[in-house]
C-alpha cells in the first residue's frame, strides 16, 4: 500500500501520517447526512397516517377487525355468553385473555390462588352466565376482584366469561376449596343455526 | 519513595531558557492500582447480579443485596470506578508527556485521586442502602453529586487545563482534544441532569418532571456513554496504541474530522433511548437521524486505530498488549455500528426493553472499555514499576479467557433479547397474543442467562489474573524508582503563524472557491487551534452546547409536547411515600412504566402511556428493561391483598417468577413522620396540595393507609398492617396509570351533563385517546 507523506508532527515520539479521508468513509458520512432531510419531510411533513399515533390507530383497527369483524360488538349478557360457550374457537380467544390477565389470582387452570376456584360448582357472586361478565366488568369482593371494564374490549369480556364458564366442573387439582353457593347448571348453548339466524337479523 | 524534583525553576521567568522537569508517575501508579481493584469489584458485583437473576432466592431476603439495589452498584462501579480510574491513569500518564510538563499541581492530583475514591466508596455504601435517584448511571444522591462536580470540574479539570496552559509542546495532540471534550461535557451533563430540590440529606426531587425528566436523563445517559466511555478511551487509544505499536497514526485529517463530528453529533442522539415513548415524536426522529450520522464519525476512530497497525500486524501476533487493543477497537466498531442500527425506530420497537440492549452495552463495556484499559495497564506496568512484567504468559491467558468470556456473555444475551422481543410481539392469525403470559417469555430466556453466568465468570477470572500479575510485578520493583529529569524550553509568547498555505492548485485554471477549499482541506486553520488550549476548550463547549440547546429548548418551551390531562392529579402523601419506596428498591431496574403505542403491547398491558400522565413524576420511572411486566397500568389491576401476597413471596402467586421476596416491606414500619419533606418538595415544584396535606401530612397519610389495610383485610389478608411499608407501596401501585380513566371533576360541567354510570363505563372501555380528548375539552 502506498503511503502518504508524514506530517511534521511528533508528540512524545508519536508521529502522524497525512493520509486523506478514505473515500467510502467520506461518502457514507455524507449519505447519512443527506438522508436526514428526506426522512424528516416524509414523517414530519404533515402527511396523514405516518405518525406513530396514526400508525397505531391503523394497526389497532386492523387487529380489532381481525378479531371481531364477524361478530360486531356484543352484549355481555347470559344469552350471548351461552351462545359463545358453544363455539370452541371463541372460547380459545377467551382462554388467551384469561391467561394474560387472570391467572395471577385464579391460577393457570382456574384452580384458584388469591381468587376463588373456578373449576367447581360453587360461586360467590355468580348465579347466571351473565353474572360472570358482570363480575368481570365491575369487580367484586371489595376490590378483591378488580374491575376490568376499561381494560378489556366488551367482546373479550364475553369470550373470557365463556371460557370461565367452560371451566366449571373440571375440578382442577390442588384447587382452593369451594366457596359461596352451589348454583344451577348452565343452560345448554343454543343450536348452531339459530345463532347464525340471529346474527343475520342483527 | 520518589525524590521530588522542583519542576518550576521560576514561574515569573519568561525566557527560552530550557526548564528541567520530571513527570509525576506516582499518581499514575495510584490510578492504575485503583483501576485494577475496582475492575475486580465491578465485575464481581456483575457476576452476583447475573446469579441473582437465575437464582432470586440467593439474596436470602436481605434487601441490601437484592437485584434492584445491586444492579446500579454494578453499573456505577463499572463506569465510574473501573472505567473512570482507567481514564484518569491514561490522562495523567499521557498528558504530562504530550505537554512535556508535570501536572500543574501535585496537590490537586492527590485530591483528585482520593476525592474520587471517596465518591466511589460513598456510592458503594449508599446504593445498597437504597439511597438513589433511580436515574440510570446518575443514581447517586445530591450530596455525592456536589462532591463529583467539585472533584471532576475544579480539581481534575482545573489541574488538567492549567497543565495545558503551562505546556512545553507547542501543539496539542489529538488525545488531548478528546480529553478536553470529556472534561467539559461530562461536567455539563452531570450538573444539568442532577438539578434537584432536596428533601433531606438523602433524597432530592428532580426539577424536571415526566417527559422532560426522561429527556434530560437520556441526554445525560447517552452522553455518559459518549463522553465517559467513548471520547476518553479514544484519547487513550490515540496515545497508547501508536506507543505500543511504534507506528505513526494513520491520518491526521481523519482525526480532526472525526473528532469534531463526533463531539457535535453525539449530543443529539439521546432521544433514541425513548422511541415510541411519550417523548414527542420529533425529538425521537432527531435522535434517530443524528445516531445514523454518528456511524461514520465513530468508525473514524476505529479506522485510525486499526490502520495505524498497518505494517505492524506481525507485532500484534506477538504482543498481547496489541491484541487487547485490536479486539477492543473491533468491539468499538461493532457496537458503534449496532448503536445506529438500534436507533432506527423499527429495530428499536423490537429491541427496546429486551436483553438486546444489555448485550449491546456489554460488547462495548467488556470489549472496548475493558480491553482498552487492560491493554493500557499491561503496557504501563513495566514502565511504572521499572521492571519486567511478571508473566507474559499469564497476560496472554487473560487475553484469551477474556475474549471467550465476552463472546460467551454476549451471544446468549443477544439470543435472549431477540427471543423475548419476538415472543412479546407474536400474534396468531386471529389477532391474539401467542404468549399472553409474561412469565413464559422470561422462563424461556433463563437458560441463556445461565450461559451468561459462565461467560461472566471467565471474564472475572481474567481480571483476577490481571490483579495477580500486577501484584507480582509490583513485588519485583526497584527499591527506589528512577525519576528521569527532562529538559525543554518553555513556549515563547510569540509564535509566528505558519505562512498562509498555498493551494497545490495555484496554477491550475479553476474557480477560486475550489482553490480555497483545497487550502481548507490542508487543515492549517486547525493547526492554529491546536496551539490555543483555552480557545479549543471554548469551541468544544460551544459545539456541545449548541447541539444541546437545539433539542432542549423546544422540549421545554413547546406546550403541545405535553398536552394537559385534567384528571391527572398529584400523588397523595402516602402514595408519594410508596413511590419513594419503589424508587429506593430499584423497581425500575426490572419494571418499565411506559406502554408504547404498539398493538402487541397495548393488548398485553393496556392503553398506551400519554405524556400528560407523568407531570407529577419526579423522577420519571419509565425504565429501560422488562425483566418483569410493565406497570404503567398496574393501578386496580390486582387486588391489594394480591400485592401483599406477591411481596411476601412472588412465586406463590406467579409460579416461575424471578422476582425476589420483599418480606422486609411487610415487616418494617413506615416512618409516617418522615413523609412531610417529600410532600413539601413536591409542592415546591408545583404539585397542588391542600393545607391539610401540607401541614398535617402524617394524619392524612395514616388515614389512607387505614383504608388500604382495611381493603386487604376485607379481601382475606392479615389484620392491623396499616403501618407497614408495603401499604404505602401498594397505595402507589394502585394509583399508577389510573388517572387517565377518571371522570373529570363535575365542577367543570353542570350536573345534567355528567354521564350516567353506563355511559361512563362505555367511555372507559374505549379509554385512552378518547378519554384524553374529553378531558381536554373539559378544561
TrEMBL record, chain A:
Keywords: Heme, Iron, Membrane, Metal-binding, Transmembrane, Transmembrane helix. It comes from the Bacteria. GO terms for molecular function: electron transfer activity; heme binding; metal ion binding. Residues 190-202 have a biased composition (Acidic residues). Gene3D superfamilies: 6.10.280.130, Cytochrome c-like domain. Pfam families: Cytochrome_CBB3, FixP_N. SUPFAM superfamilies: Cytochrome c. Signal peptide: none annotated. Residues 169-202 are annotated as: Disordered. The chain crosses the membrane at residues 24-42. Residues 89-168 form the Cytochrome c domain. This is Cbb3-type cytochrome c oxidase subunit CcoP. It comes from Stieleria marina. The gene is ccoP.
Automatic annotation (TrEMBL), chain B:
Keywords: Cell membrane, Copper, Electron transport, Heme, Iron, Membrane, Metal-binding, Respiratory chain, Translocase, Transmembrane, Transmembrane helix, Transport. GO terms for biological process: aerobic respiration; electron transport coupled proton transport; respiratory electron transport chain. Its cofactor is Cu(2+); heme b; heme. It catalyses: 4 Fe(II)-[cytochrome c] + O2 + 8 H(+)(in) = 4 Fe(III)-[cytochrome c] + 2 H2O + 4 H(+)(out). The chain crosses the membrane at residues 30-53, 73-93, 113-131, 143-164, 176-197, 217-241, 250-269, 289-309, 321-344, 364-385, 397-417, 449-468, 532-553. Coiled coil: none annotated. Residues 573-737 form the Cytochrome c domain. Residues 751-771 have a biased composition (Low complexity). It comes from the Bacteria. The keyword DNA damage does not apply. Binds 1 copper ion per subunit, denoted as copper B. Binds 2 heme groups per subunit, denoted as high- and low-spin. One of its GO terms (molecular function) is heme binding. This is cytochrome-c oxidase. The lineage of its organism: Bacteria, Pseudomonadati, Planctomycetota, Planctomycetia, Pirellulales.
Amino acid at each position: 500500500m502506498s503511503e502518504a507523506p508524514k506530517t511534521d508532527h511528533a508528540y512524545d515520539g508519536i508521529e502522524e501520517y497525512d493520509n486523506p479521508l478514505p473515500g467510502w468513509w467520506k461518502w457514507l458520512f455524507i449519505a447519512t447526512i443527506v438522508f436526514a432531510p428526506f426522512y424528516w419531510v416524509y414523517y414530519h411533513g404533515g402527511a396523514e397516517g405516518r405518525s406513530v399515533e396514526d400508525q397505531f390507530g391503523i394497526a389497532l383497527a386492523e387487529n380489532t377487525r381481525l378479531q371481531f369483524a364477524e361478530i360486531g360488538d356484543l352484549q355481555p349478557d347470559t344469552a350471548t355468553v351461552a351462545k359463545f360457550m358453544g363455539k370452541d374457537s371463541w372460547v380459545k380467544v377467551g382462554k388467551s385473555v384469561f391467561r394474560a390477565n387472570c391467572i395471577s389470582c385464579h391460577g393457570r387452570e382456574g384452580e384458584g390462588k388469591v381468587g376463588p376456584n373456578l373449576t367447581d360448582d360453587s360461586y360467590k357472586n355468580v348465579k347466571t352466565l351473565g353474572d360472570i361478565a358482570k363480575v368481570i366488568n365491575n369487580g367484586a369482593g371489595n376490590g378483591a376482584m378488580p374491575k376490568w371494564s376499561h381494560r378489556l374490549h366488551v367482546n373479550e369480556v364475553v369470550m373470557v366469561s365463556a371460557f370461565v364458564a367452560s371451566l366449571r366442573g373440571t375440578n382442577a387439582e390442588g384447587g382452593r376449596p369451594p366457596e359461596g353457593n352451589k348454583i344451577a347448571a348452565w343452560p345448554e348453548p343454543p343450536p348452531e343455526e339459530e345463532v347464525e339466524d340471529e346474527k343475520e337479523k342483527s | 519513595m520518589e525524590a521530588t524534583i522542583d519542576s518550576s525553576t521560576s514561574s515569573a521567568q519568561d525566557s527560552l531558557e530550557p526548564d528541567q522537569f520530571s513527570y509525576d508517575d506516582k499518581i499514575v501508579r495510584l490510578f492504575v492500582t485503583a483501576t485494577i481493584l475496582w475492575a475486580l469489584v465491578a465485575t464481581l458485583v456483575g457476576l452476583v447480579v447475573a446469579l441473582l437473576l437465575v437464582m432470586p432466592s440467593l439474596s436470602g431476603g436481605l434487601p441490601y443485596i437484592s437485584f434492584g439495589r445491586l444492579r446500579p452498584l454494578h453499573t456505577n462501579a463499572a463506569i465510574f470506578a473501573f472505567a473512570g480510574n482507567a481514564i484518569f491513569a491514561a490522562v495523567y500518564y499521557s498528558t504530562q508527556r504530550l505537554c512535556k510538563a508535570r501536572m500543574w499541581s501535585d496537590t490537586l492530583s492527590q485530591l483528585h485521586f482520593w476525592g474520587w475514591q471517596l465518591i466511589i466508596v460513598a456510592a458503594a455504601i449508599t446504593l445498597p442502602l437504597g439511597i438513589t435517584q433511580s436515574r440510570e448511571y446518575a443514581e447517586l444522591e445530591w450530596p455525592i453529586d456536589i462532591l463529583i462536580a467539585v472533584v471532576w470540574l475544579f480539581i481534575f479539570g482545573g489541574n488538567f487545563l492549567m497543565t495545558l496552559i503551562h505546556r512545553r509542546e507547542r501543539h496539542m495532540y489529538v488525545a488531548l482534544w478528546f480529553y478536553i471534550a470529556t472534561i467539559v461535557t461530562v461536567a455539563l451533563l452531570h450538573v444539568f441532569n442532577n438539578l434537584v430540590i432536596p428533601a433531606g440529606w438523602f433524597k432530592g426531587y428532580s426539577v424536571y418532571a415526566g417527559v422532560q425528566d426522561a429527556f434530560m436523563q437520556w441526554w445525560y445517559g447517552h452522553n455518559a456513554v459518549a463522553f465517559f466511555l467513548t471520547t476518553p478511551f479514544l484519547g487513550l487509544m490515540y496515545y497508547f496504541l501508536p506507543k505500543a505499536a511504534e507506528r505513526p497514526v494513520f491520518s491526521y485529517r481523519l482525526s480532526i474530522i472525526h473528532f469534531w463530528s463526533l463531539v457535535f453529533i453525539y449530543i443529539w442522539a439521546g432521544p433514541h433511548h425513548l422511541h415510541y415513548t411519550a417523548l414527542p415524536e420529533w425529538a425521537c426522529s432527531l435522535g434517530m437521524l443524528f445516531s445514523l450520522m454518528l456511524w461514520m464519525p465513530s468508525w473514524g476512530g476505529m479506522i485510525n486505530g486499526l490502520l495505524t497497525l498497518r505494517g505492524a500486524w506481525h507485532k500484534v501476533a506477538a504482543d498481547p498488549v496489541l491484541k487487547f487493543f485490536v479486539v477492543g477497537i473491533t468491539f468499538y466498531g461493532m457496537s458503534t455500528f449496532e448503536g445506529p442500527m438500534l436507533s432506527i425506530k423499527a429495530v428499536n420497537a423490537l429491541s427496546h426493553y429486551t436483553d438486546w440492549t444489555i448485550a449491546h452495552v456489554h460488547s462495548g463495556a467488556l470489549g472496548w472499555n475493558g480491553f482498552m484499559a487492560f491493554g493500557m495497564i499491561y503496557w504501563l506496568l513495566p514502565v511504572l514499576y521499572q521492571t519486567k512484567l511478571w508473566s507474559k504468559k499469564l497476560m496472554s491467558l487473560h487475553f484469551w479467557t477474556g475474549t471467550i468470556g465476552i463472546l460467551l456473555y454476549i451471544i446468549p444475551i443477544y439470543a435472549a433479547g431477540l427471543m423475548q422481543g419476538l415472543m412479546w410481539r407474536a400474534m396468531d392469525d386471529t389477532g391474539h397474543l401467542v404468549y399472553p403470559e409474561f412469565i413464559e417469555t422470561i422462563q424461556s430466556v433463563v437458560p441463556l442467562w445461565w450461559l451468561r453466568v459462565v461467560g461472566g465468570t471467565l471474564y472475572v477470572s481474567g481480571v483476577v489474573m490481571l490483579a495477580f500479575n500486577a501484584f507480582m510485578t509490583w513485588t519485583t520493583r526497584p527499591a527506589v524508582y528512577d525519576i528521569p529529569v527532562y529538559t525543554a524550553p518553555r513556549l515563547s509568547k510569540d509564535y509566528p503563524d505558519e505562512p498562509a498555505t498555498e493551494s497545490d492548485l495555484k496554477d491550475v485554471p479553476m474557480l477560486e472557491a475550489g482553490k480555497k477549499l483545497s487550502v481548507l482541506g490542508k487543515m492549517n486553520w486547525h493547526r492554529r487551534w491546536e496551539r490555543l488550549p483555552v480557545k479549543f476548550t471554548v469551541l468544544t463547549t460551544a459545539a456541545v452546547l449548541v447541539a444541546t440547546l437545539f433539542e432542549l429548548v423546544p422540549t421545554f418551551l413547546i406546550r403541545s409536547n405535553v398536552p394537559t390531562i385534567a384528571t391527572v392529579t398529584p400523588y397523595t402523601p402516602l402514595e408519594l411515600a410508596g413511590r419513594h419506596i419503589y424508587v429506593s428498591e430499584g423497581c425500575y431496574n426490572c419494571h418499565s412504566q411506559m406502554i408504547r403505542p404498539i398493538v402487541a403491547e397495548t393488548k398485553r398491558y393496556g392503553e398506551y402511556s400519554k405524556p400528560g400522565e407523568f407531570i407529577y413524576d419526579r423522577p420519571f420511572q419509565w425504565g429501560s428493561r422488562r425483566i418483569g411486566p410493565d406497570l404503567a397500568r398496574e393501578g386496580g389491576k390486582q387486588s391489594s391483598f394480591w400485592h401483599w401476597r406477591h411481596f411476601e413471596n412472588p412465586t406463590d402467586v406467579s409460579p416461575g417468577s424471578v422476582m425476589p421476596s420483599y418480606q422486609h416491606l411487610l415487616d418494617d414500619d413506615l416512618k409516617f413522620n418522615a413523609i412531610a419533606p417529600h410532600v413539601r418538595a413536591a409542592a415546591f415544584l408545583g404539585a397542588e396540595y391542600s393545607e391539610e396535606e401540607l401541614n398535617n401530612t402524617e394524619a392524612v397519610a395514616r388515614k389512607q393507609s387505614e383504608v388500604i389495610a382495611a381493603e386487604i383485610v376485607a379481601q382475606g389478608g392479615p389484620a392491623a398492617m396499616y403501618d407497614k411499608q408495603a401499604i404505602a407501596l401498594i397505595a402507589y401501585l394502585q394509583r399508577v396509570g389510573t388517572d387517565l380513566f377518571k371522570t373529570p371533576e363535575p365542577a367543570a360541567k353542570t350536573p345534567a351533563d355528567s354521564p350516567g354510570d353506563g355511559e361512563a363505563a362505555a367511555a372507559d372501555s374505549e379509554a385512552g385517546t378518547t378519554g384524553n380528548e374529553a378531558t381536554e375539552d373539559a378544561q
